[in-house]
Structures are given as C-alpha cells and as structure tokens.
Design goal:
By secondary structure, this protein is α/β, with parallel strands linked by helices. It contains 11 helices and 9 strands. A 7-stranded mixed beta sheet has the order 5-4-3-6-7-9-8, sandwiched between helices. The chain has a two-stranded antiparallel sheet with strand order 1-2. The longest helix is centred in the first third of the chain and has 15 residues, at 43-57.
Length: 281
Amino acid sequence: MTLSECLERLSDLPDLDRRIILKEVCNLSDTDLIIHKDREISPSECETIFSYSDRRREGTPLAYILGHWGFRYNTFLTPEGVLVPRPDTEVLVESVLKCSFSKQSITILDMCAGTGCIGISTALELAEKYKNLNIELHLSDLSPVAFDTFSKNAESLIHCSRIKVFTHKGNLFEPIEKTIKFDLILTNPPYIPSSVIPTLGKAVLSEPILALDGGESGLEFIEKEINEMVPFLAQDGIVFMEIGYDQGVQVSSLFSAAGFASTQVIKDYGNNDRVVKASFK
C-alpha cells in the first residue's frame, strides 16, 4: 500500500488527523506526504496506522494515541490521565513573556500543572530572553499521573543550569512550603461547570474530569485556589490564570475580593476571555 492509497483508506478521518498519524508512524515530514505519495508502507506500519485510526474513530485524543503533543516550541509526554495541551493555553505563556523582569532571580509556580507545559515553557523562554536570570520552577498537581508526567517532561526538556526544578504532589497549596513567596503563579485550573461536562465531545471526555470540572458554577475550584494563593504570592508578584471563554468578569471579581488590587482579562485568538492577570499592586 502506498501513502496515497493509505490516505484514501483513511478518508473518513479529518485530514489533519490522518496526516499526523501517517507522519508519526512512517517518520515523515509534510513535504514527504506531498512529494513521496508513491512510497510503500510496510505491513507493520499499516498495522500501527490502522490501530491508531481505529482508536481515533472511537474518540481517543491524538495526543493519547501518540503519547506526546506539541506546545510552544517543545513536545511534551501526554499519557492518558493528563490534560492535553491546547493552543489557547499558549496565550498564558505569551502574556507572561510580555512582562519585564529586572530581578536576577525569580520563583515560579505552575499550579495544576498537568504535563507541566505552562511552567516548563515559561521557564525555558524566560531563560532564553534574560540570559542572566536564575529561575526556580515549582510544578504541582494532585494527580499521581500528572506528577509523574511533569517530572519526566522537566527532566527531558530543561537542560539550562539557571533553571532549578522542584516537584510537588498534593491538593492545591498543601504540599508547598509556607515560607516560599512566588514571583509568578501560573495556573490552568478546572473551570467548566459540572452541568456542561456531559455535553462535551468524546475526545474531551477522555481527559481527566478532575482537570475539567469546576463545580456547579465552574468557579468553585478557582475561588478556593485564589484564596489559598494569597499568602504564597510575593507583594510584587503576578498571577496568570486560564479561565473559561465568558468568565473574565466573575474571576476578576474573585481576585478583587481576595485583596488583589489589579486585574486584567486577556483574550485568546478567538477574542474570548482566556487569561486573568492579577497582582496586589
């Protein structure tokens, strides 16, 4: 079977999905798919391709099928049981990079870290932008799968000697030493209302409900997290929190009620609420 014939056999799948599967299994580039359509696919490759395709038809996210997924400039391990990195979340990292940092060292917390894609990407890009900046990166999550995943991702992706990584497993701020003051707290908490969860697509429902379900209002976890983070944030520290598409006003109010003097709602590429930036000053 040739590449062209295989693409035709998979015509019931979205074009992007089938191309990603072929590129992964056959170790091809986008150019290869165009100029080498007559390349023969081996029997073992065919078996893997059709196995992956069947799982995709059943609704399994491609990130789980492949075991990894791209975010910003790196590829992260994505086993089943962690939230799949999404393009809209890159807005949070971009927002951090727009800030100016004059300190020689900063301490960062990625809370509800999942794969660690937010914290790891931010640390790597800040270290690249500020050549003399020392970074202490903390990654934390309640999920044992997430803890194992972000630990492996940090080990494989962070090779800069100016970035020191600390990993924590536990509920919100419980595992974090109370003496630590963070310059940046980055978080993508569960924010989908419980009533909306059953209406989500198969692929999303394959992801951990713990990372999606924000309670009846969608804000229950967020409110608890905001209140708990107050003593852990440095006086000149900044919080960047991912939120639902229509939660900007409500989440800003929760930050204000907790004593944050400044809040800003940042839109995503579709002009929806996506990140709230908050600080004490």
